[in-house]
Amino acid sequence: MTEQVSSHLLERMTIVGDLEVASFVPWIRRHAAKLGLSHTISHTSSMRIELEVAGPEELIDMMEMGCSLGPIDVWVERIDRMAISGERT
Predict the structure, then answer these.
(1) Using CA atoms, how far apart are residues 39 and 74, in angstroms rounded to an integer?
(2) CA-wise closest residue to 55 among 80, 26, 85
(3) Which of 2, 3, 19, 47 is deepest in the core (most CB within 10 A)?
(4) pLDDT in tens, 9-56
């Protein structure tokens, strides 16, 4: 059997829009936990949330997609992603 090695990334994700922080931040935490991503939320406001996420690139992509759809009471205009560090296993 071949062993598949998954590369992990660390990225800063900035979510911009009309954000309901009281519901969206707990939603982000639950979604990241369900995907098995490590995460740290560093800034929250009604217009911007910044977080760092670490994990496989495919799961970070899923996190971005989930946040863009988000809960009904938020309107995400855009999500910017920036790599903080390169691949690690």
Answers:
(1) 20
(2) 85
(3) 19
(4) 999 999 999 999 899 999 999 999 999 999 999 999 999 999 999 999
CA pair distance 40, 49, nearest whole angstrom: 11
Q: Two tokens at 59?
A: 């799961």
Q: What is the pLDDT of residue 8?
A: 83
> Which residues, at least 6 apart from 49, have a Cβ–Cβ distance to it below 8 Å?
14, 15, 19, 21, 24, 25, 28, 41, 43
DSSP assignment letter at 4: P
β-strands 8-18, 48-56: how paired? antiparallel
49 neighbors 73 (Cβ within 8 angstroms): no
Q: How many other C-beta atoms lie within 10 A of the C-beta of residue 67? A: 23
Q: What is the dihedral of CA 16, 68, 89, 44, to 10 degrees?
A: 30
* pLDDT value, residue 69: 92
The C-alpha atoms of residue 8 and residue 24 are separated, in whole angstroms, by: 25
